[in-house]
Design goal:
Blueprint (H helix, E strand, L loop, with lengths): L4 H8 L4 H51 L1 H4 L9 E5 L15 H4 L3 H23 L4 E6 L23 E7 L29 E6 L3
Antiparallel strand pairs: 1-2, 2-3, 3-4
């Protein structure tokens, strides 16, 4: 039986323009979602890398302090203790005497240890400034590095036992995942300053022998 011309035309029809446009819109929403996930993944990777860098720097300072415990355990005249330094980071008593030449040793072993401490904190702060975005640093005697809610805090409380435990606190700027105005640390579309909120890293350094 021959096929009528009307049935042949119906079988030959393809997608209409409306159907093509709807498909493009649906595909676009899917691609936008993938782009958003990719952006979040990149941000998470950046945050993890900076967290690792900051932790390594804090531990490195702890090792330097333990190696120069005579100075690092002091509650006064201690170059390692710095209070709320913000970018650009600079030691209150900068020094470049990382060698033991006569121009850096002072006169006694205690003077030499002090000069080495000043040089170490100067060099360390310069590297923190170079490796973290807009960093903030506090190195202090602290018996309560976390508040009542368990959140890290910048404020320091000197321990009654002197320099038994030193806290190395480091913060830096980062973009938040939540850019809404409801975020208490940022306005809509404005990067959150982690350095203005809580430390990103707190590493305790025990000065007990």
């Amino acid at each position: 039986m021959p096929i009528s011309p009307s049935k042949h035309r119906r079988k030959a029809l393809g997608f209409s323009l409306v159907e093509v446009l709807v498909s493009i819109v649906v595909l676009s929403f899917g691609l936008l979602g993938m782009v958003g996930l990719q952006a979040m993944a990149l941000q998470a990777n950046r945050d993890a890398r900076l967290q690792s860098v900051a932790t390594g720097l804090a531990r490195e300072l702890g090792e330097m302090m333990r190696g120069n415990a005579e100075i690092a355990a002091k509650t006064t005249s201690n170059p390692y203790l710095v209070s709320d330094l913000r970018s650009r980071l600079a030691s209150p008593t900068p020094s470049s005497c990382l060698n033991i030449g006569s121009n850096c040793t002072g006169g006694t072993p205690a003077d030499t240890a002090l000069n080495i401490a000043k040089a170490q904190i100067t060099e360390w702060l310069a590297r923190v400034e170079n490796e973290l975005p807009s960093p903030r640093v506090t190195v202090c005697l602290d018996s309560a590095p976390y508040d009542s809610a368990g959140m890290p805090q910048w404020a320091c409380t000197q321990t009654s036992g002197g320099g038994d435990t030193v806290m190395v606190k480091i913060g830096w700027t980062r973009n938040p995942y939540n850019r809404s105005a409801s975020n208490s640390n940022t306005s809509a579309g404005t990067p959150q300053l982690a350095t203005d909120g809580t430390p990103g890293v707190i590493v305790p350094v025990s000065m007990k022998p």
